[in-house]
């Protein structure tokens, strides 16, 4: 598995650490992954096939 790293400001990371403790996560990284996975899933689920088709039309990728 490949690892990727995100750069966060020190203050954001401190807030992430505090929130992870409050929410009961074992680490800030685990908490951040959980938040990102939920946000991405919500975005993907919120797009219907018609929404995707309309976006592709707007970008000029499809005609009909």
Low-confidence stretches: none
By secondary-structure content and strand pairing, the structural class works out as: mainly alpha
Oligomer: single chain
| Biggest pleated-sheet summary | none
Total of DSSP H or I helical runs spanning 4+ residues: 3
Characterise this structure.
The protein has a domain of 38 residues. The chain starts with 9 loop residues before the first helix and ends in a 6-residue tail after the last helix. The chain is built from three helices and no strands. The protein is mainly α.
Outline of this structure?
The protein is mostly helical. Helix content is 67%, strand content 0%. The mean pLDDT is 87.
SSE topology:
Elements: H1 10-23, H2 28-46, H3 49-58
Output the keywords.
64 residues; mainly alpha; 3 helices; 67% helix; elongated
């Amino acid at each position: 598995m490949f690892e990727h790293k995100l750069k966060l400001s020190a203050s954001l990371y401190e807030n992430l650490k505090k929130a992870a403790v409050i929410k009961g996560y074992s680490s800030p990284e685990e908490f951040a992954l959980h938040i990102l996975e939920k946000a991405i899933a919500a975005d993907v689920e919120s797009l219907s096939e018609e929404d995707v088709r309309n976006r592709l039309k707007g970008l000029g990728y499809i005609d009909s």
